[in-house]
Design brief:
By secondary structure, the chain is an alpha+beta fold. The chain has 6 helices and 11 strands. Helix 1 crosses helix 2 and helix 2 runs antiparallel to helix 3.
């Protein structure tokens, strides 16, 4: 996937005028790029459009107008774009009860170690690779970046849709699996073409 560059980004003034309709488009687009795994975990699949939106929103929120600062944001977020034959996801541990936030997050300690998160394509399994530095021995972040790197055969199987496809969390305190539907498979297949 081609990285974003400064020409893909509009200035804050332009973005403010296009934001309402652009934001609505992104929300609709992400609908088939978001997978709920059990009650507490969501995977959001990133690509050029989702990353561009994040950059524009960051510029807006932090009032970033200088070209070198914009380029820093682009460089940072480009690291989240999927590479060839892979998916790049943001894994969110979603806790709505503030009183239980620490307790629930602590129950996910170790999720980013070992083979806890996987993509299953028929009998084939792809384990997620977590970006380091998001947790400590006694603390875990609510946001993680996870990459799923597929072989050429797995890419073909995913795109064909002939095998059932699911995402699974197999952590000692949280186990859940979600089979994706055809609309999600079609949307995610675009990242592999």
């Amino acid at each position: 996937m081609d990285p974003l560059s400064i020409v893909d980004i509009v200035n804050i003034a332009e973005y403010e005028t296009e934001r309402p309709s652009y934001r609505d488009q992104i929300i609709k687009f992400k609908k088939n790029r978001r997978i709920q795994i059990g009650e507490l975990v969501t995977l959001v699949f990133e690509n050029r459009e989702t990353i561009r939106f994040q950059i524009q929103e960051m510029m807006r929120a932090e009032r970033i107008v200088l070209e070198d600062r914009i380029q820093e944001e682009i460089d940072t977020y480009n690291q989240l774009l999927p590479k060839l034959n892979s998916f790049s996801t943001t894994l969110l541990i979603e806790v709505t009860d503030q009183a239980k936030m620490r307790e629930i997050l602590d129950s996910f300690i170790g999720i980013d170690h070992g083979n806890t998160t996987s993509l299953k394509i028929g009998d084939s399994v792809v384990y997620g690779e977590y970006e380091g530095g998001r947790s400590k021995e006694d603390r875990v972040s609510a946001v993680h970046y996870v990459t799923f790197s597929l072989t050429d055969q797995q890419v073909s199987q995913f795109i064909s849709g002939e095998e059932p496809i699911s995402f699974e969390i197999d952590h000692y305190k949280y186990k859940a699996e979600t089979v994706i539907n055809e609309m999600v498979r079609e949307s995610l297949s675009q990242d592999l073409l």
